[in-house]
Amino acid sequence: MPGTNLIVPVVLWGKHAPTHCISSVYLSRDQKTLVTGCYDGQICIWQSDPETLKMTPRCLLVGHTAPVTCLSRASIIQDNNFIVSSSEAGEMCTWDLVDGKCRESVKLTQVHTNIQAYHMCNSEDLRLFCNGYYAEILIMDPFSLEILFSLSSKMNPDWISALHVLRPSSRKDDVVLAISITGTVKVWSLLGHENKQSEPIYENESKQIRCLNALSLNCCAYNQRTVLIVCAKYCQIYDAGDFSVLCSIQAPSGERWMSGDFLAPDRVLVWSTEGKGYLYKLPANKLRGKAINSSVPDHKGFHGPTVAHDSPVLFGILSHTDNELLSCPPAMRFVITSSGGRQRRLLLRGDSAGVVSIWNVDDAATPDLNKVNTYAPLVLTSMEIAWSDMNPSPVGILDQLHVPDESEIKLTASIYLMALNRLVVGREDGSIVIVNATHTVQLQLLHGRHQQLDDWPPHQLLLGHNGRVNCLLYPHHVHQRYDRAHLVSGGIDFAVCLWDLFSGSLLHRFCVHAGEIAQLIVPPHNCSPRIQKCICSVASDHSVTLLSLAERKCVTLASRHLFPVVTIKWRPADDFMVVGCSDGTVYVWQMETGHLDRVLHGMIAEEVLAACDETLSDDLGGSMSSGSGDLQGLANPAVHFFRGLRHRNLTAMRAATQRGLAALQHAGPAAAGPLAAPARPRPAPLTVQPFRSNPKDPESHILFFDIEGLIVELLSEEYSAMSPASLEAAGLISSEYMKAAALTQSASPDATKRISDFFGRVKDKAGDMERILKEKDKHGILAKMKEGAETVQTKLQAKAEQLKNHLDNKDDGTTPKKRPKEMCLSDAPHTMEIAKILVSLLHAWGLDPDLDRVCESKLGLLRPMVPVCFGVVSRHGHMAVQLPTRLISWTEACAAAPDDPLLITSDLPPELLTQEKLTRLFSSKLHWELSTTLTTNHLLSIVALANTLMSMSNASFLPESEMARRLHRPSTRSSSSWAAEEEREEQLAAQQAHIKQGWSLLATLHCVLLPDKVVATGAKNFKRPQVEMLARRWQHHCLEVREAAQALLLAELARLGPKGRKALVDNWAQYLPLYTHTESINPHAAQKEPAEKLAKTVDEFDEEEEEIVRKPSSLAELKRKQTTAVVLLGVIGAEFGQDITSEGAAGNKRRKDVDSRKSSVVEGFTLSSSNNLARLTALALTHLLQAPACPRLPAHTPLRRAAVDLLGRGFTVWEPYLDVSHVLLGLLEMCSDADKLVPSMTYGLPLTAQADSCRTARHALTLIATARPAAFITTMAREVARCAAAAQSGQPSPAYHALQKGRAEVLRGIELLIEKMHSEVAELLVEVMDIILHCVDQSHLKSKGLNEVFPAICRYNQVSHCPATRRIAVGSHTGQLALYELRAGRCQSLAAHSGPVTACAFSPDGRYLVSYATTDNRLSFWQSTSGMFGLGAAQTRCVKCYSTAPMADVARLNPARLARLVWTNSRTVTLMLADGSETRFNV
């Protein structure tokens, strides 16, 4: 399940609007959204008012790396807010306009110049017709971005310069009319069933006309008789029948035409590169007669000779009043919109200054022949204008350094030092500022005491550059080999400076370049030792140098490049640095000597670059890093680190979002080599990324809060301060578990003793451990959490395993390697501060005033000062960030909200008052109306964090309690206790309880109460959490996130109620994968049936879900839908089982029944007779449990874990459809290695995937056992019997192995059942004993009694063990007595009583066995006689029978305590009854 990493981006924009040089423009049909693409690759979404067309920028979509050339709608449905964008680099993306998520993105080799969205016949939604720098026309699906088919040319194939698709009035098919750049007009007709498999589709006819490099081609929509073709110098009207010229229009002098369209059969609108629209009336005699309305040229003068008055007449101009010159042609588009039933025709224009203007063409469309009118635009706006409307202006990250009267110093470069929590910012005047990152963020965004302090937080200034600082690099981040104090900066003054971070002094100034420094990079770690101490710098004079930080001199100056440097690759083994330039040449330099080895061109050059990539990917395994702008390659510069400076920051941002994921994937056991030590496998809780859309802009900053990274850091700080003894007390290490595991191993008495001694010793040594823990720095101890190899308890485990296996070689596993203590800038750990900022920003202030007071006083949260600009990170590393200007659109909402009397009386300036009011409105209401994605992510984040903080001791953000918490850590204090100490203990305990309760209330508010409270505040369109996003995280790898997702999903499903859940089930049932018994047929199921069958559900618009049900457009999407469907239906089935299985409603409810798709496609969706859905869901879940590991479904994935978890939760619902023994054995197989993985399963840090699966499987087993104890026990007993039979025949089955491996688990399960469900187990005691004897290693019973080995079972009076003769007797529910002879390994059963056996006991010498049953009130003595000399079968017979007094009925109610039998000597037995009476009997 991709993209499950929870990241919350928050943007600090600063006072300057981002440059937005518009390259394409689009307005939605309903006039609510305007979209502009720019030359820097961003796309801006504007919110517009359909009536007045007043627009405010709402959101910026980041992801393209080249100018956005085309924007197009993606669906015919009005409310379906998706658009498709395409860029000059061949990238295409489908964006969701509501939340800015990128749904799909591809990179094609073809670059489009124009996209027309068209609804073809026989297709249910739009298709994109694309043309561009390639010789075909591509027809693409807007949602999957797959090429469906292409149209090729037979005659003069060439690039297509313009195309138009239309459906002729009398025909059923679609006609594509296109013109190539050489002036060949071509026509294709399409029937709508074309696909990739069919042979090439050639044009039906083609004709050469005199029209080169046409810019656009439009067919008249009114009579389809004329065609307008626009070229730069002139535009011409052609006859559609034979393509003869009817008339032409010259461009005004000094201008060139861009494109045009018909307004009526005899009027056209053409616009020019100067951004003006010209309206012309065409000569009527050219279009005379019926020809205007019909397409038959009945008039003989239709093609007559041209005469003077036949030229088109200009009757209107649309232009700006100021007529200023443009630096490049604007993007213009003619759109026909409809809102409220009226059509409007608008001309949009976006220019390079970022100004958007709109003309209403209808105002100008009626010709006034006497004079030419000029019309001004209806609307004129731009980002700058919107930004300047904001008062106070948006916050930047270093606003505290701004002196009110001076002009602001722009920020030009910045990096964030994670370990030190420092933000280093280079500015335009050459100064570099170093400041505490969390403090400066807190100052910009949150209210609190810090607002009153002057000069807080303190900052450090490094002065050394003259002029702008271009780039910064902290090499230690990229690789540990560099000095931690070194910071490198490059400026516009040609110099590279080396700084000492801690003292703030300038260590050296390298002046070797002859141009400004553009980029600083770190060479790979396997270069020669001398190069390893260097960093590489690139400058604008096309030179590259290697500067040695150790020797303080330039090692290599590579400066003979004729063109700008685009890529740098490394061949460390050959000592080569390979430099690629923008003209495609490649220079190979020797690093040590600085000698130019060779210059390559053409194909060879490309191959050499490609070869460098291969070697690097091997060497750099999973190395992980980065501080500088070249995040694209992490520590690996081989990936184009540097796609031209324009996009330096985009790539940085992308990588920042992907970094967390990469880190988690790479930190497998493979990375355990020398590489893994410096690498940081955990995602950083906070990264601050600089962001600018254009090199001229000052930087804005995006804070990426990684929820999972934050949780891990919080917990590891918490645990690293606890000693093993207190960890065990908190249930984080369990030695209990070890005992169950030890039972299944054969017993050598000394080994068990050594194990228990070892555990004892460890607890005594808690003090020493504490010391070792303290000596290690906090990154060291948990750095390899992913391997689980560094944690203390795993070492204990490893030690214990060694002792068990009698390994003599001592491992040095128990003493962690000591690294020097991290030198830091004397700050407290900043993880809590990061958490404080994030929770304060996400919390819904104002919904529950009491809770708000608790938050401020007890938990130490701070109220936000400004409405926060959040972002959304989507797949493929694309991102959407909100613009601060969206506030302008909320002013009405704000004005309507009631005023707070306290605010009005304060002496704040009015603009701050409105801002404060807006902020309060935002956090209580508007925040939750933005989009479902944001709501889901933010609720997940805050619930997960609240739960984490609740589980920590005393986790409050108040500074005083922070100090108290540091002083008072359980288990670290000395044992001295005097009165004051105790009193303090009590206060602390009370305080801790308050804090825990506060967090729990916070979690409850966001998990359960939020929707109703937000709606109560008057929110009209509260965006619900998305059920499917929660379902995908049902088994997220981070436990806290997983629990939050489960709680939120269940709360949301409960809130939907039966009707909502039914709608959900109906929606998703169609995606449930169909499994045959052996193999899954799902990928092709979708293609086997006619498209209409699946399309049944298209076009329904289900309000509750806010999601349009569409046919999945690609296989990947189908797969995603299927996995989501399995989890979602599984959850609904497990938690609200009646919804899925309710027999009565099933008939009409399963209209879209899934199974019928296989059998009876023809009749459509037949009514289902039974509750088929539950069966199919159960089948899908078991398939996921049992499918063997393969590349498509690896052994340990979240999906498989989710299936395991849901099988456990809903076992009672699924049971009728499951093969119980298969399921149980599958689960046992999964948790078989539990004891080797991690003894502690509750440890909150991310487990390895394997440990996680194991934990989930173990939990599921427990759930199944407690839900259906009888099924669990009988199935297990049956498997045990099968195994025993298989073992005797000498062919152990796979089931046998699963049972052998899972023995400890089975024992745990049974122990739990005896504890929880005493009476249910009593009915199946014989089966239970079979299982126990199979699972416990027999050697334990040689030396010890059953009550020592497995004490739980001895709580039953019906069980007795005689160590002397090594026999066990069990009285069954049917009145049978089962006698197990452990020596012979066999079991015989006697019919002893007519009802359940109440108690039985062996005599001390083992000669007699006494049994008693209350039903027939009989007490029998049994004696075993063996044959002669132990030969022959042993006989057991009844020696004596006594009748006993019947028991009072009252006493029978508690069968477990009914009666006990105690032998007083070898011949006498006492029967003790529950009512206290005792009776003696003699043999």
UniProtKB/TrEMBL annotation:
GO cellular component: cytoplasm
Domain of life, per lineage: Eukaryota
Keyword Phosphoprotein: yes
Pfam families, per database record: WD40
WD repeats: from-to residues: 558-599, 1390-1423
Keywords: Phosphoprotein, Repeat, WD repeat
InterPro entries linked to this entry: Quinoprotein_ADH-like_sf, WD40/YVTN_repeat-like_dom_sf, WD40_repeat_dom_sf, WD40_rpt, WDR72-like
Protein name: WD repeat-containing protein 7 isoform X1
Gene from which this protein is expressed: LOC114245713
